[in-house]
Amino acid sequence: MVEPQTLPPPQAAAKLNDEGKFAEAKALLSDMVEKGEKSPPAFLQMARALRGLKDLEAARSVEERALALFPQNVNVKLQVANALSSDRNFDRALNLLSPLLEEGKTDAPLFVGASIALRGLARGDEAEMLELRGLETHPEQPGLVRRRAIVLSQNKRFRELIDLFDGKEALARQPWAGALLDEAKKALADQPGTVEADEDDTDPGAMLARVATVPTEPQRVEPVPSQTIEAAPLSPYATETASPARPTTSVPSYTPGARSGSPENSTSSPMRTSSSGARPSPSQTERPRPTPSLEPAYVERRSGSRGFVMFLIGLLVLIAAAYGAHVAGFIDLTPIFDSVSKLVQAAR
User: Fold this and answer.
1) How far is CA 176 from CA 157, 160, 167, 300, in A?
2) For 131-135, what is the mean pLDDT?
3) Closest listed residue to residue 52, CA positions, set 22, 28, 10, 81
4) What span, in angstroms and rounded, lies between the C-alpha atoms of 119 and 345?
5) Is the N or the C terminus of the chain less surrounded, counting Cβ atoms within 10 Å?
6) If you ran DSSP here, which 8-state letter would residue 55 be given?
7) Rounded to an integer, what distance in angstroms lies between the CA atom of residue 57 and that of residue 61?
C-alpha cells in the first residue's frame, strides 16, 4: 500500500480528507495555497479540508480564489457549485453550471450538481428532465443513479426507484442502494393493494390471495326516504276523500280553496298506502295525528243547502205578497185558487 507521504500533496490531501483527517490535509496544502501555485486540486482539497473543520469562511475564501485563478476549469466550477448548494446559494451554483450545460458538456457530476441546484430553486420539472438526460447518457454512473434514487425516495415514488435498478445488479449491491431498495420494498408492502417487487404477478393463486387480503372500505348506503304516508282519521262529512294531514316533511301541504280532485292535492291524499299495498300502522308515523278539518265536499254541500233554503224563503215571500194584493183587490187570484183546489182533489 502506497503511503500518503509518497504521493503528490494534492493526492495525499485527498486521501486524508477521505479518512476524515482534515487537519493533516490542511497542513499538507497550506504552503501551496498561500503561494498561489497553479494547482486546482490543491485549492479544491484545501477548501474541502477547511469545510471538514467547520471553518466555512476560510473555505469560501479559498473557493473564490480558485474561481479567480482557474475560471475555465470544470472541476473547480463543479466543486464550488456543490459547496454553494450546501450553503443554499442555489442561484449562484446554477449560474456556474448552466454555461457548461449550454456548451454541451455531459460530465455526470455536472448533471448531479445542476439537479441539486434546480430542485433547491423548486424547479422540479427542469431537474427531472436533466436527471433523465444524464441517465440516458450515463445509465450506470453511480453518482447519477444515486442522485436519482434519492430523489425518487424523497418523493415516495418507490415503484420507480425499484425499476431504476433493473439490470444494474452491481449498483444494487452497494450499501446505499440496498438501504434505499429495502425502504422502497417495505413502503410498498405497507401500502394496501400494492405488490412487492419480488412477487410473481403471473401466478393466479397469488393474485387471488392478494386481492382477498386487500381491505375494502365498506360502501356507504344512503337511506331511502320512506314512501309511507300517515292515514288521518276520516271526517264524518267526507264522501270519497279524507282530509289532508298537516304539512310535514313527507306529506305535501293542502292548498286552500282547491278541490279534492285537483292536482295540488292529488299527491297528498291520506288514503295512500305503502308500496306493499297495506295501510300504514300508527307505529310508522312520525308525528301525532292531526285534527281533522272540514272537507271541501262538506263545504260544497252546506253551501248548496243554504241556497235551497233562501229559494224557499223567497218563494214564500212572493206568495204572501200575491195573496195580500188579492185581498186588497189589486189582483184576482180566484182562477188560480180554483185550479189548485182541482189539483189537490185529483191527487186525493
Assistant:
1) 17, 17, 17, 95
2) 93
3) 22
4) 124
5) N
6) -
7) 6
Alpha-carbon distance of 142 to 176, in angstroms, equals 10
Is-contact 94 120, C-beta < 8 A? Answer: no
Which residue type does 210 have?
R
Judge residue 11's burial from the number of C-beta atoms within 10 Å of its C-beta, 0-12 exposed, 13-18 middle, 19 or more buried: middle
CA-closest candidate to residue 100, choices 87, 111, 90, 91: 111
pLDDT tens-digit readout, 98-123: 999 999 999 999 999 999 999 999 99
More confident residue, 122 or 235: 122
Say which residue, 112 or 342, is predicted with more confidence. 112
Give Rg (Cα) of the chain.
Answer: 52
C-alpha distances in Å from residue 38, one per residue of 50, 65, 73, 253 = 19, 11, 12, 99
Q: How far apart are CA 344 and CA 80, in angstroms?
A: 138
Residue type, 276: S
**What are 326-332's contacts with CB under 8 Å, separation 24+?**
none
Q: How far apart are CA 185 and CA 240, in angstroms?
A: 76
Q: With cut-offs at 50, 70 and 90, classify the pLDDT of residue 174.
A: very high
Q: Give the C-alpha separation, 326 to 106, whole Å.
A: 137
The cell numbers describing 325, all together, are 194584493
What's the chain's length in residues?
348
Distance CA 101, CA 137 (A): 13
Each residue of 65-80: pLDDT tens digit? 999 999 999 999 999 9
